[in-house]
Amino acid sequence: MKKVCVYLLSIFIILLNIYLMFFWQPEGQIAASDTISKEIVSYNNGTVFKVDKEKALEQLSSEDRKDFDKILKKLSALDMGKIREYYEEDNEEEGITNAFKLLKKRLSDEDYKEIERISSNFIQLDKVNEKIKNK
Fold it and tell me: Which of 80, 83, 100, 115 is the most buried (most CB within 10 A)?
């Protein structure tokens, strides 16, 4: 009888754990999923990009592209990851500003000027430089 009670209790505990792990949803998660999600739309006419953000690098000439890649290879993998994150930020102006601040910090003056020259084809550098100076 003792064995049967232990087996029944252990089966009950196992089933309870399975339920808690796979099916139970706390009230906070249920309430969060029931709320209506709202998308924040920013009507920023003063975008930093002169062309579409997704096609900006594709529009570079092959020579500029090679120079761009050669300079960026001088950066560490961590810095490249940060720049990629900044480039993909929702707030384009803030992201590009942070990316250029990092580039200015990590690259030599000559390399930074070359990046600015190449980037001026698709980024409004006057806005970026103004934002860097204001921070």
Answer: 100
Q: How far apart are CA 15 and CA 9, in angstroms?
A: 10
* Tokens at 55, concatenated: 């096609």
Across the strands, what pairs with 80?
none
Whether 104 and 112 have beta carbons less than 8 Å apart is answered as: yes
Looking at residue 57, its pLDDT comes to 74
Give the integer Cα–Cα distance in Å for 78 and 84. Answer: 10
The answer to whether 56 touches 122, Cβ cutoff 8 Å, is: yes
Q: Flag whether pLDDT at 19 surpasses 90.
A: no
Nearest C-alpha neighbor of 42 from the set 99, 89, 96:
89
Q: Are 118 and 68 in contact (CB under 8 A)?
A: yes
Integer CA distances (angstroms), 50 to 15, 34, 88, in order: 59, 40, 16
